[in-house]
Predict the 3D structure of the following.
Amino acid sequence: MVHVPNDRLRAAIHAKGLTVEDLSVRVGVDPKTVERWIGDDSRRPHRKSRVRLAQVLRVEEAHLWPDLASDIRAVPNGDSELVHVYPSRSSVPFDVWCDLLNSVEHSMDIVVFSGVFLVEQLNALPIVKAKANEGIRFRLAVGDETSPAVIQRAAEEGTTGGLEGRVQMMRRYLRGVADVPGVEVRTHGTTLYNSIYRFDDQMLVNGHAFGSLAGQSPVMHLRLTSEEGMWQHYMSSIERVWEVAVPEIY
């Protein structure tokens, strides 16, 4: 039997900065029990443990286990695609980025202007290169620093010249993987309403707010549950940007 991990529970634990051991102490169970809850989303804690768990993590029971929505004792949450909402990109735990990046098995898409933190903080390029050599596909769409959209965005967020420089830096970094089979790098000048990071069936959507830096804006963690809904909405956006983006030539 294939066990599906409980991504919502894992994300909620990361978001609170807790370890499995921390949570087990607060809920009053063995750490291995918590690991089983994380590793198999069909496992349900007893009612008392669920209540305590939800209190510690400050989320609804039905968010962690959506099929509890029919339980009148649990607060419903019908949006099963939503794993977690972070108040800002900078509040997304480092471990979440690392887990998503390292767990890619089929394909990964990124639509950003810069995204330079992926290289400088997460050291993503060696991972991209190694995984591409294993047959995993990467599509990386970054901004064109000379495009009106990038220049306008820089002015609106109060970093005139700064964003353009970060975009140039990212394009320079990506030279290191652009010739690796399975890795495609393109540039675009679309109005970037969201930075989107897709890792197989997981996605982080970083909305942009006028006058704010991307790192200050909220991030939705989504997972694929069907071909409809928010997942397909943002997946279509990725495809539209990719279609008009220009292949990078080094």
About this structure: The two ends are 47 Å apart (CA to CA). Residues 70-79 have pLDDT under 50 and may be disordered.
